[in-house]
């Protein structure tokens, strides 16, 4: 049983966590965050003490570190507040009747700190379905949810994944192939990343190098021409993590009956000018109507059901070699602020993790 004031001897008196020290001006930089020492957290009766081993650096933090847009599922992180996000850790102390024991690996949402106190209801016990526990921190379930529910894939579809080199995109393209897509196209801002995406099975990759809007109309026209060359007959399914001119061009190139899922707005979240609170998107309503396009936003509703279906399939695909888990690991909590800045600058490929 966890008893307040009775931490195990293995837990130090002070531990570290990452806090917001100033609002980002534009895309987040390492100096917006600080690693601070605090007293070790003590679980109240019925709570679980977890020592974190890995946590995910996710793009949505760019919005949460600023003024949160309306209807955001999470509130803004206040200056002085500790960041949070998906994490995998090891149980240190658990109450009787929780079904947890010291040493168990669990996932939860209190990352960005060395130790976390979590209610049992906020934990999921890792059951060994994944060969690498850190793989639990992928965003693969998001792509799987889009392809099986929000914008259901049909055999032979031409699929476009924008922002394909990110945590969602690197797995979504592979998943689309495994689910029967005919052609899978991706977008990225880097020729080097394009080469890596082709190694993952993308049939073609459109390189749309970031310019922070300096040549907006010309850049949009170049991208639209690239898409027309790569998919002269149009696309059937869009999984969009970027927004902006990439999403607009994709919707303009959609075939009759095409499906589109809007998952993220990276072009706005990581803009140098700091537009994370808004993500305008221009649609030709007439074409949406006459083509019968289905455009949906991917929300977290039903995500637990999606993840329960995704995890065993992901584990089987990993073990068979049918899929890979592209990711980078920053070593140590002190590297977390830099990892966020580098992700915002587009330096990483795949999921970004911090390993403690």
Q: First CA to last CA: what distance?
A: 26 Å
Give the low-confidence spans: none
| CATH fold category name of the largest domain | Rossmann fold
Number of domains: 2
The CATH class of the largest domain is Alpha Beta
Helical proportion, percent range: 25-40%
| DSSP helical segment count | 10
Radius of gyration: 21 Å
Order of helices and strands: EEEHEEEEHEHEHEHEHEHHEHEHE
The proportion of residues in beta strands is: 15-25%
**Mean pLDDT across all amino acids:** 93
Apparent shape: globular
CATH superfamily membership of the largest domain: NAD(P)-binding Rossmann-like Domain
Organism: Kitasatospora saccharophila
Domain Enoyl reductase (ER): 30-354
Protein name: NADP-dependent oxidoreductase
InterPro entries: ADH-like_C, ADH_N_2, ER, GroES-like_sf, NAD(P)-bd_dom_sf, Quin_OxRdtase/zeta-crystal_CS, Zn-ADH-like_protein
What does this structure look like?
The chain has 356 residues and is an alpha/beta fold. Helix content is 28%, strand content 24%. Strands 3, 4, 5, 6, 7, 14 and 15 form a seven-stranded mixed sheet that branches. Helix 2 (140-150) packs across helix 3 and helix 5 (216-230) packs across helix 6 (244-252). The protein is globular. The chain starts with 13 loop residues before the first strand and ends with a strand. 45% of the residues are buried.
